What we know:
The chain is of the alpha/beta class. Helix content is 31%, strand content 19%. An 8-stranded mixed beta sheet has the order 3-2-1-4-5-6-7-8.
Amino acid sequence: MAPRSTRPVGTPTRGTTHPNRLRRMDRWIAAVHAPALRRSAGAPVAVDLGYGAAPWTAVELLQRLRRDADPRTRVVGVEIDPARVAAARPYERDGLTFRHGGFEVPVPGAPALIRAANVLRQYDEDEVREVWARLCGRLAPDGLLVEGTCDEIGRRHVWVALGPEGPRTVTFATRLGSLDRPSDLAERLPKALIHRNVPGEPVHAFLRDFDRAWAAAAPYASLGARQRWIRTARELAADWPLVDHRGRLRQGELTVRWSALAPNET
C-alpha cells in the first residue's frame, strides 16, 4: 500500500508543459525498461510525477508504453496542485487516471516506473538524494525511476535512471541536427549534477572529453550527424564506462554509468 500522508510532499512546479516534450525520454524508457514491465505479475503501473499544468505528458506516456512496451500498462498522473488534477480529470480513460499528491506517490502498491521530468530543478542540490531515496523506496523490486530535465520543446534531455538500490546511469539525449557540441547539453543536467559542472568534478571532465571526442570525429560529419555521434561514443568508451543499449546511439542518446559521474563528496 502507498504510505499515508496528511498532505502531499513537495512544492508545485511552474507547470510548463508541451505536447511531445518528453518523447525522447519515453522512447528510451520503452526500449530499455520494456522487459521489466512485461515481467510484472499484473498490469504494470507507471507514474507521471509532476506532469504540470496540462496532462499531455501522461496521455503520451500511456500511448507509448502500451504500444512499445506492454499493452497492459496503466499510467497515473500525480500532481501536487489540486487545480491541475481537476483540470486533467476529463482526460481520464481506460488505463489513465490522475491523483493529487507528491513525492509520497499516492498509488496502491509499488509502481513499475516513476518518471519525474523537470520536477527537481527548483529544489536545492542537497535535497535531491532524500527525494531520490523516497521515490526509489516506492518502486517495485524490478522498478525504475527516471529523473531529469529537458528543454521546452524536447530537443535536449539529460536524465538519471535509478533502481530501488539507487542511481544507475546518466543518459544524454539530443536531436543531433541541432547540436553544435555535446557540452551544449550541460544546461539540461539534472539538479544532482548541474552545479557540479566545474573543474575537478567528474561530470565536468566527462563533458570536456565528450567535446574533444566530438571534435576528433568531425571527419564523420560528411556521413551525417548520426555517424559522427556514433564515432564520438567509440572514442569516449576508451576512457568512460558507457552502457550499450542496443540501437540507442542511433537515436541521439548516450548513456554512462552513474558511478563515473557521481559528484565528489564534500
